[in-house]
Amino acid sequence: MIKPQRIMQACAALLVCILARPIHAAEPPLIWGGDAEGGAPFIFDDPQNPARTVGFEVDLAKALSRELDRPIKFRQYQFRSLIAGLQRGDFDIAMNGIEVTPDRRAKLLFTHPYYVFQQQLVVRANDDRIQTFDDCQNKTGIRVGTMEDTAASRILNHAGIDAKIYDNQIEPYSDLEHGRIDAVLLDFPIALYYARPNGKLRFAGDPFAEGYYAIALRKDRRQLAVELDHALERLIATGELRHIYEKWGIWNDEQDRLAGASSLDVAAESQLSWTFARFFPLLLDGAQTTILISIFGMLLAVAIGLPVAVARLYGPAPLRLVALLYVEFFRGIPVLLLLFFLYYGLPGIAEVYGWGTWLDLQPVHAAVIGFGLNYGAYESEIYRSGIGSISPGQWEAAACLGMSQRQAFRRVILPQALRVILPPMNNDFVALFKDTSVVSVIAVVELTKQYQMLSASSLKYLEIGAATAALYLVMSVPLGYLSRRLEARWSSRMG
Questions:
Q1: How many CB atoms lie within 10 A of CB 354?
Q2: 379 with 411, same domain?
Q3: How many CB atoms lie within 10 A of CB 2?
Q4: Overall number of domains in the chain
Q5: Is 226 in the same domain as 362?
Q6: Which residues, including other chains, have CB under 8 Å from residue 72's CB and lie 6 or more apart?
Q7: What are the φ and ψ backbone dihedral angles of 211, each rounded to 5 degrees?
Q8: Does residue 77 or residue 72 have the better pLDDT?
Q9: Helices in 27-96 by DSSP H: which ranges?
Q10: Could you tell me if 416 and 494 are in contact, meaning their C-beta atoms sit under 8 angstroms apart?
Q11: Residue 119 to residue 156: CA distance in whole angstroms
């Protein structure tokens, strides 16, 4: 039997050993900003276990964590906002296939490059018009999809090729497959994962236009940049980096040049000068698209809203039920979900049932229809409320004058209801005008999307943001003035 004093002596000895050990304050984890929505092979949700992320950058982060002897914690952050989030200090490092450009190097630090990328052009397998990138330049009517603020988008812009801009790397290949665009130009690792396995697509020509991925840091984190440089150099020297890339199938001979590159002499491919004369015409183009979608979307909403309101007020029971279901359905779903369904869902349904391509809507058409359907439900409730606010005596007075119900509604009830309807309808138009910013999810470059693209490329968030806000004010303030003029005019007539 062990005596109690022996137990006490052993505990005391253990405590002395613990206290005698030097205490090292554990370094806080490095916060790594990236976007798992971007997809393979960079960082994405594991199909076998969606609770964790995988990808070659995930494996690289683990290797760097071991080399630094410091934990690296991933933080989900939208790709288009990575640079802005890094500058404001939301995380320590940004690593998500970030390309080194002169604009970014002017305001950020970059580590030793960790991947040499090239551009790969992809076309439909049955399209013989395009064999190389030069064919996109030499033939008219070619439209090429790419992602915003990328080396590919700058190459297309410099070559004068009509480019369609997307938020992520999956949708361009889907649109290419459905014939909405003629080609896709994106980084080779992306094409490798999303185009090569698709039998309906093929590579057109060899990869070209070399560039580098590197880890971005704020200017005040130079010491951390040096530590990351040393860690990356060790991973390159030991061959561990090559092992990671071979695991993900993205190793090629170009990666051998990583050993000779440095964080100080990375070449960049863009020399755009982001002056007012450079970015403002692009903002005007985005504003034109915003106005187009707003006007036609509102016209469709008005055309839908009034019949639905009349059906709910005066239609037979089955028609009233259908109108009620329409209102509740389209008010209950987000317009973003509706846009996704119209643009990406309908072609899939048509393909399954063999309906051809007549459901393949163009992006602007899908945006107008989506906003028309959504806001039509809200407009119908405004019209129903306005019509219902008119005194029943007005119907009786019209009947006394010998008018039919249809004539009474058109000549007496509706004109009076317009005075009640106009202010909330104007508010809805302004709301729709600003909601057009969500159409970027279906590759429509409206004003807000153009601002995001330009500011991400130039890092001139303040200057371009002020110009964008000014354009919104120039477009929206006259709407309020026009609404007040119409209210005053109709009030004086009805008074």
A1: 6
A2: yes
A3: 7
A4: 3
A5: no
A6: 29, 30, 32, 61, 62, 64, 65, 93
A7: -155, -175
A8: 72
A9: 56-68, 82-87
A10: yes
A11: 11
Rounded-to-integer distance, Cα 228 and Cα 311, Å: 67
Q: Alpha carbon of 185 to those of 123, 316, 463: distances in Å?
A: 9, 55, 30
Final residue before a domain boundary, out of 201, 229, 260: 260
**How high is the pLDDT of residue 265?**
39
Please enumerate in sequence order all residues whose Cβ is within 8 A of that of 376, keeping only pairs 6 or more positions apart, or say none: 300, 301, 302, 303, 304, 305, 308, 330
Read off the CATH number of the domain in which 128 is found: 3.40.190.10
- C-alpha of 338 from chain center: 16
More confident residue, 423 or 177: 177
Residue 285 placed within a domain: yes
Examine the domain organization and report whether 281 and 410 are in the same domain. Answer: yes
pLDDT in tens, 172-195: 998 999 899 999 999 999 999 889
- What are the beta bridge partners of residue 121? 185
* The pLDDT of residue 271: 39
Question: Position of tokens 């063999």?
Answer: 354
Give me the pLDDT at residue 471, please.
92
58 lies in a domain?
A: yes
Q: How far is the C-alpha of 476 from the C-alpha of 480, rounded, in Å?
A: 7
Confirm if 57 and 72 have CB atoms less than 8 A apart.
no
- On whether both 184 and 227 belong to a single domain, the answer is no
Q: How many CB atoms lie within 10 A of CB 52?
A: 10
Q: What's the domain range around 124?
A: 115-211
Gyration radius of the chain over CA positions = 30
pLDDT at 270: 39
pTM over 0.90: no
Residue 17: partners with Cβ closer than 8 Å, 6 or more residues away: none
Give the total residue count for the chain: 495
pLDDT, tens digit (0-9, with 9 covering 90-100), for 199-210: 999 999 999 999
DSSP state of 409: I
Sign of CA pseudo-dihedral 11, 17, 20, 22: negative
SS3 content of the chain, % helix, strand, coil (to 5): 60, 15, 25
Q: What is the pLDDT of residues 365-415, one digit of tens each?
A: 999 999 999 999 999 999 999 998 888 888 888 888 888 888 888 888 888
Q: What is the DSSP string of 5-33?
A: HHHHHHHHHHHHHHHHSPP-PPPPPEEEE
In a domain, 484, yes or no: yes
Q: Whole-number mean pLDDT of the chain?
A: 85
pLDDT digits (tens, 9 = 90+) for 5-41: 555 555 555 444 444 444 444 678 999 999 887 678 9
Which 8-state DSSP code applies to residue 402? T
Judge residue 289's burial from the number of C-beta atoms within 10 Å of its C-beta, 0-12 exposed, 13-18 middle, 19 or more buried: buried
Closest alpha carbon to 483 in 411, 412, 433: 433
